[in-house]
Request: fold
Amino acid sequence: MTLNQAQAQTEFEDDLPEVITLRSGARFAPRDNYWRFLDGVRSIYIDFDSLPSQVEALKQSLKRVLIDILQRNSSVYASNMFYNFRRLASVVAEQGETVERIETVHLLNFIAKCGTSDRLGLESQVAALLNRWSALGLEGVSDEAVRFLTSRRKKGNIKGEAVVTLDPVQGPLSDLEFEELMSAVTHAYAENVIEEKLFLLAWLVALTGQRTCQYCSLKVKDVRRVESEHRTEYQIDIPRAKQRDALLRDAFLMRPLPEQIGKALWEYAQDVARFHSELGEDAPLFPTTSVANEDMQLNDEFRHHPDVVALGAYFRQGLRRIAPISMRTGEPIHIGIGRFRDTLGTRAAQEGYGELVIAELLGHVDTQNVKCYVAVIPEIAQRLDKQLAKELAPIANAFKGRILIDKDAASRAGDPTSDIVDYANAGKTVGSCGTRYDCKFNAPIACYTCHNFEAWLDAPHEALLEHLLAERERLLVSSGPRVASINDRTIMAIQSVVDACQQIRQGEAESVGALNG
Reply:
């Protein structure tokens, strides 16, 4: 940096206030080259020293632009704009020359670097930044560069691509994946593999499909128990995601909760309030134990709340340990809160709900971002038959119980109330229940995917399999693939039992043959 540039930067920084306070109450020192602060439940890091030295002269104006964005839009948008500029700056730096303003040639090089697809819409985002820069009348962007950007038709980010293509890693979960994952969550909690906090967060995410920042900003008082003369209901008020002029916890989405989860979540919330007695009902619903950001926490409204990055990592890492295998990838299901949001939207579309309903369900203020949730049905929902079930059963791993060669080895041997009867097949018994818990689920269909089911080796499992496959074909014609696929996970579990029983019998036959030989 030259002496004149250093003097100019000093004058510029002296012209900035020592501290800027945003609408959320977040504060930072704009004269510093490292902006680090908490805006609500988001940790913001903007390091101007990370820019290449070739664009040193542009830092002054860039700070002004970002301050304007922070005051008018959101801190996340400002952070994204900074990282987009840094991408542009890295392309400029490749030429090795110091620049005092962005010219058309720099943009051409950047566009070429992005490639023809530009799936992230980087050109569009950089254009938004430089247009704001020019509109503020700041030095650093040539008029020709602005006119060039204005004349181009930007591709923009492809909205909902992972949803439309049913991307097996980033897109919505298939019905089988969703059921397997939530079954794994419930079983892991029952076996003390995951803690209650993660169990309830996972179910809340699955049921409501909102953004990570909304779960970060939840408080104990948002979980409500509503008593009436005849029943007790549970609800949760979820803060709406931050819009341009709306702050977190200024508006809410009310969502009813099923009793099994609602009651557990309400009792958990009361425990959190007691633990954080100084905050009581204002305590965060999912409090953080990290102290990494304590020096950044300047807004008491979100005291002890986790930030978006921390809660997202907690969710991913916790569920990654128990994630079942995806039949689409042959690997553990990729975990991310956003996938549950896409799953909820896709399922709603498949159920026939319109764009307005889906927008309200996901908390959108309009329908422009829900058009991707079309009624696309996975191919398996159309063509699952006995052969495909046989191929997929080992991957699905839907059967969670055990097979009994000797009925006397059952957990509740001699107790006739433990028998699981298939009334669709002449009332024949297919196995035993290993628990005394009265689950109220539809036996025997629900039993094959239960960890407490003890299937009998000599039971007519294949008859039930044939019955469900025939029923599936009937529903496929009468009610469509969505309804027809409701028992697909059970079909694969029964197929697993049929295959395992055949292997056991084959092994016994071979043993007898060896003895007779």
